Amino acid sequence: MYRTAAKRLLAGGGITTTRLLRLPKLRSTIIPSSYTSGLCTSSIGGNTESPMGNQSVNPNQSGPTASSSTGTGEGQRRHESRKPRAEFQEEQARVLSASLRHVPRLGWTEEAMMAGSRDVGVSPSIVGSFSRKEAALVEFFMDECLQLLMDRIDSGLDLQNLIPSERIFKLIRIRLEMQVPYMSKWPQALSIQAHPLNVPTSFKQRAMLVDEIWHAVGDGASDLDWYVKRTILGGVYSTTEIYMLTDDSLEHRDTWAFLDDRVKDAFDLKKSIQEAKYFAEDIGAGVGKSVQGLMNGVMQTMSRRSGGSAF
Amino acid sequence: MALRSVSRRLGSRILNQRSFVASLHSHATSFGFQEVKEEEKSKLVGNVFTNVASSYDIMNDVMSGGLHRLWKERLVGKLSPFAGMKHLDVAGGTGDVAFRIYDAVYSVKRRALQKVDEASLEETQIYVCDINPNMLNVGKQRAAERGLRDNKSLVWVEGDAEALSFDDNSMDGYTIAFGIRNVTHIEKALAEAYRVLKRGGRFLCLELSHVEIPVFKNLYDLYSFQVIPNLGELIAGDRESYQYLVESVRRFPPQERFASMIADAGFEKVEYENLVGGVVAIHSAIKL
């Protein structure tokens, strides 16, 4: 998060230099990475930095609009009739978007992306420049689905009349239904996301998804910790996603039944954890009001017991 | 007052242009550390490569300790060749990069893993362009040794990087390995590269570049100026050519400057990667 903010700042600051006007984009993408001779022990830190700069579609957009206008100014100095420059991020997004059509047939592969690039009218060579190629396609899809979900929520999904567990059910169902057209190739997407190089980004995307769902559900009357909430929802989402892979029922009825059960389990879990907490607090109230008091109480109890058994 | 500010702006712009042009022309009139006339530079470079052609590959191996193979592998890896691509390798005389691209496209393992259309395989064209016919002959010989003499995918063309004989928007990929240093006008070569590439086509340049790391830089300079010309004398019998080589590396623009030149030619997403601490750099860009 701090990295993308810093890049945005750099891009904004670089616009004012008159000599090398296209460098703002350069600064965010030129990452000179050093390799030791022959061994190619590439620093993974260095590698993951450039994908972050390219993959996240939003942060760089403050740069391009400004640089394209100054770019045309410089273009006039030298060559009048230069057509407007397409920003690489936009081009990548267009190619990936067109590639999604080919995924059910060709899978989440370079072939699908090359077919997509041909549809857009760009040489398939461009696929060679996407970082972590297939992962770029999967991550693009995940981002798109999240955006679609957010749009659906904003355009007035009827959540007010539902209790939290039903809201969660509805949101997860909407999100999973977006994957239905690609269900035959979804296992491949999951394995791509699980690849060590891709885990940071896929984890981040799932975290954002879960965050968004909780945000839409509203916090409700829950005492659970922020992380625990998201972890549990992440678990419910992932298990349902995997269940869906092998579900042949009509309109995935079995999946929704499974999802319903899991959401209820999660809320029951919440209730039972809450009960355990009240119980613990009652014990704590006996020896002191705070959790620290409970700890001390436990320690005291334990030390008392061990002292007793020594005799 | 307005006039003064206008003239100051004009003056600074002219000054910028002049210094810009001057720094470019310094490459055009430099033959290593010597100053030569522009018209003469290409002739002098031509002589160098005519002399070294036959021992070019051996000298590469000796000077880089075999590392140049890894660098070229990395270059082709970055390119990600695909079946049916039209690729241009400029200044690729002896065919190192071209053969690697050929192998990458035609490798049986790759074909098995991906569903490659046989028809598109046939359409693959790899053009090897070099200004020096001697270097091309060595390349053709090596092709014959590999059994690729009559292969239609490999096309050997004699031509000038500053004035290519290919159509606009005809190439999916353009590579130049250890060649752009020898071109008289770098910006012309870059402009030609931009011209022949299709939209979405990639430009990749592998070149000896500048080392900034303190102690390593000194070692590298020592190696370049003391060891390499002697190796040249010993193995190729030509000290001057290798003296030119190490000097021309120093006169070539550093990584950032070259990257900005590439961006000025119109390319997008200009990036570079240093190998061996900057001894070699791979610059990549896309035409959009």
Automatic annotation (TrEMBL), chain A:
Residue numbers spanned by region Disordered: 42-91
Keywords: Lipid-binding, Mitochondrion, Transit peptide, Ubiquinone biosynthesis
One of the record's GO molecular function terms: lipid binding
Biased composition regions of type Low complexity, renumbered to the chain: 62-71
Highest taxon listed in the record's lineage: Eukaryota
Biased composition (Polar residues): 42-61
Pathway where this protein functions: Cofactor biosynthesis; ubiquinone biosynthesis
Every COQ9 C-terminal domain range: 199-269
Subcellular location: Mitochondrion
Gene3D superfamilies: Tetracycline Repressor, domain 2
InterPro entries: COQ9_C, Ubiq_biosynth_COQ9
Compositional bias segments (type: Basic and acidic residues): 75-91
One of the GO biological process terms: ubiquinone biosynthetic process
Cellular compartments per GO CC: mitochondrion
Function, in words: Membrane-associated protein that warps the membrane surface to access and bind aromatic isoprenes with high specificity, including ubiquinone (CoQ) isoprene intermediates and presents them directly to Coq7, therefore facilitating the Coq7-mediated hydroxylase step. Participates in the biosynthesis of coenzyme Q, also named ubiquinone, an essential lipid-soluble electron transporter for aerobic cellular respiration.
Similarity-based family: Belongs to the COQ9 family.
Protein name: Ubiquinone biosynthesis protein
Organism placement in taxonomy: Eukaryota, Viridiplantae, Streptophyta, Embryophyta, Tracheophyta
